[in-house]
Structures are given as C-alpha cells and as structure tokens.
Design brief:
Elements: E1 4-12, E2 18-27, E3 32-36, H1 43-51, E4 58-63, E5 66-67, E6 78-82, H2 93-103, H3 108-122, H4 137-150, E7 155-159, H5 167-184, E8 187-191, H6 195-201, E9 204-209, E10 212-217, H7 219-223
Parallel strand pairs: 3-8, 3-9, 6-7, 7-8
Antiparallel strand pairs: 1-2, 1-4, 4-5, 9-10
Helix pairs in contact: 2-3, 2-4, 3-4
Bound molecules: adenosine-5'-diphosphate (2 copies).
One adenosine-5'-diphosphate binds next to helix 1.
Keywords: ATP-binding, Cell inner membrane, Cell membrane, Membrane, Nucleotide-binding, Sugar transport, Translocase, Transport
Protein name: Glycerol-3-phosphate transporter ATP-binding subunit
Subcellular location: Cell inner membrane
Length: about 230
C-alpha cells in the first residue's frame, strides 16, 4: 500500500490544448478516490499519467516515496482495471491471472497460492480452466479484478471498469469492489461518469472541469445541495 501524490501535474497533448492543468492531489494510504466530471475534462488523462501510459508534461507524480515520472508502467507497482477487461482471449482464466506474475518471475507455488485466494474471494474458482469467451461480462470483470489483485500492488487504478455491464450487474459489482477495497485496504483511484458509483465508492470525490479540480470532498460534501 502507498499514498499517491500529484504535484502541479499538467498534460499538454502534442498540438493540443491543456488536457490537465496544474493539479495538486494527495491521496492517503488506503484511500478510495473517485474522479468525476464531464466528458473531456481530463479524468482519463490524469489516471493514465499515474499509470505511466501518458507522459507527464509538467509537475510530478509519486507513489509512496518514489517519484514515478520516468518509471515504466510495469515497474510502478500499480495495477489497472480497464473498461474492456483487456483479457488475453487465447489463455485460460488461470493463465490470464498468472501472466503478470510469471513475467515478474514469481515462484510457481506463490503464483498458485495467490490465484487460489483471489479466485475464492471473487467466486471464480470454478472457471479457472475456461477461456474468457466462455464467461459472462460480470465474470470477465471479476477476472480483470483478479488479475489486479494477485499482483498485490501498491495501488489500483480503475478506468470506468463497470461501464460495459448492464445496469443490474453494475450495481452488484459496485458493491463487490467496495467490499474488496475495504478488505484489502489498497489505495485506489477510480474514474467514472456514473454519479451513483461515485457516491457509493468514494472516500473522497474529485470533480474535474476543463483539466482543473473544481471541487474535492466526501460524497456528502460534494453532492449536498444547501
Ligand atoms: P475524460 O476522460 O474526462 O473524458 P480525457 O482525459 O480523455 O477526458 O481528455 C481530456 C482532453 O484531452 C480532451 O479535450 C480530449 O479531447 C483531449 N485528449 C485526450 N486524449 C488525447 C490524445 N491522445 N491526443 C490529443 N488530445 C487528447
Ligand atoms: P492453456 O490455456 O495454455 O492450455 P492451462 O490452463 O491448461 O493453459 O494451464 C497451463 C499451466 O497452468 C499448466 O502448467 C498448469 O499446471 C497451470 N494451471 C492451469 N490451471 C491450474 C489450476 N487450476 N491450478 C494449478 N495450476 C494450473
């Protein structure tokens, strides 16, 4: 686990306007932060800079004590969960879960231990030998969560992970994500455009507008209209 600290962070895309302007944000160890705001306000860009998937134009990002501006995504000790799951279609669920750990040369017995524990937590034990195409959307999303969990990262980054699911499943998965984060205590940064999701999950909400923080506070503080 670790805190995340963003100091005066900005992003200018080549030939473009500022997507993120001079943002300061300190996320405490174990805190669940949800980023909300209108389409194009910079949520995804901010998340991707923390992940190392976009370069940082100015300012600095730290995970724990470590400045990560020039650290490769794979070496940042974070795990990202995407909207489209990003599972390997030709691999079994087991091998999808094992893939990142095998690359890190984690011993086989340790890989197996972590996979069994995560699969149990997510109730996907009975699907380990299946290919992703033989799973439902909700099961695929659990596998994507499992792949993040087994890495035991310092932080989870979520990019609208539930937006491909139908409304009913979205509600139940929302509860499961909250439950998992409470149980694991892993610092989380979560992007969504769904207000209910934001209110349910967030310790603190960050409202972005045109690349800047417009408001920051607990769900009650942000959504309470006096
Ligand atoms: P959000 O996730 O809140 O919808 P984004 O971070 O995707 O917002 O986008 C913020 C701004 O940056 C938008 O104006 C968008 O058009 C622009 N943008 C996003 N990605 C790129 C890119 N690869 N190249 C140029 N401009 C981009
Ligand atoms: P593929 O999809 O490439 O055929 P498999 O799922 O059959 O891969 O498994 C490949 C490797 O992963 C094997 O070495 C096997 O030992 C290990 N493995 C797969 N499923 C499990 C499991 N449920 N428990 C322990 N090891 C597993």
């Amino acid at each position: 686990m670790a805190s995340i600290s963003l100091q005066n962070i900005s992003k200018v895309y080549p030939g473009g306007a500022k997507a993120v302007s001079d943002i300061n944000l300190d996320i405490a160890d174990g805190e669940f932060i949800v980023l909300v705001g209108p389409s194009g306000c910079g949520k995804s860009t901010l998340l991707r800079m923390v992940a190392g998937l976009e370069t940082i134009s100015a300012g600095s990002a730290s995970i724990g004590d470590r400045k990560v501006n020039n650290v490769e995504p794979a070496d940042r000790d974070i795990a990202m969960v995407f909207q489209n799951y990003a599972l390997y279609p030709h691999m079994s669920v087991y091998n999808n879960l094992a893939y990142g750990l095998k690359n890190q040369k984690t011993p086989r017995a340790e890989i197996d231990k972590r996979i069994q524990a995560a699969a149990k937590m997510l109730e996907i034990e009975q699907y380990l030998e299946r290919k992703p195409r033989a799973l439902s959307g909700g099961q695929r999303q659990r596998v994507a969560m499992g792949r993040a969990i087994v890495r035991e990262p310092k932080a989870f980054l979520f990019d609208e992970p539930l937006s491909n699911l139908d409304a009913k499943l979205r509600v139940s998965m929302r509860g499961e994500i909250k439950h998992l984060q409470k149980r694991l205590g892993t610092t989380s940064l979560y992007v969504t455009h769904d207000q209910l999701e934001a209110m349910t999950l967030a310790d603190r909400l960050v409202v972005l507008n045109a690349g800047r923080i417009e408001q920051i506070g607990t769900p009650l503080e942000v959504y309470h209209t006096p």
